[in-house]
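Suppose a colleague, Dr. K., hands you the sequence of a protein chain of 252 amino acids and asks what its three-dimensional shape might be. Before reaching for any lab equipment, you can write down a predicted structure in token form. Begin with the sequence itself:
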Amino acid sequence: MASTIATLAITTTITATTTITTTTTTTSTEALYRLLAWLSPAYPVGAYTYSHGLETAVEDGAVRNREELVAYVTAALRDGAGRVDGALLAAAHRAMAKGRAKVLDEVAVLGAAWRGTAETALEAEAQGTAFVNVTLAAWPEPRLAAFAARHPRRIAHAVAFGAAAAAHGVALPDAAFGYLSAFAANLVSAGVRLVPLGQTDGQMATAALLPVVSAAAQAALAADLDTLGTSSPALDLFSLRHETQYTRLFRS
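The predicted structure, expressed as tokens, is then:
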């Protein structure tokens, strides 16, 4: 496992020099305010309680420093849940924006099924349920409420986020980039606590992940759910083993 993570770290170092191309969006000031609120660590979805298998990776010695933490998060974004979630978010956003309720429902069902382990399913659905509940309470929107009523407690976080973003006028590129940035930031925060690392190392890891997040967001916009696939067996094994890990700080 450690060698796999180390290899990914080398790839990440090379990628960090990639030029990032930005896209102009039409997100209004009010919609941007909502997006920033939803992405805040203070938004009560419980993200801080999940490590996405990272706790076991640290326990096994596969993640021991900043470089290996960056590699772990990179793998999750490129080949694991980040890749799936970005595509689901984009599909949900487009379906909600076009008023295609049936398609949105199909994305919700796919999002609930597309999980490799029990803990990653919990991670997605528990955060999705919390996100829907607090968003409807603070930012009520009838189309989002109707969608949530059709899938009680069964909407993955990425799907809920994409649907809410479309309903509230947040442009898809902004929503995808923001969601994946928060996904990466939460794992870095978990790594800072678990390895442990200093706060400066955490910020350096976040900076190193910028081109990875940017590429993941672009991949999300171009993804086709009919042909999409992922492969992150090491991360899935860490997640599976975390279910029976003797001492745990995190829920996944």
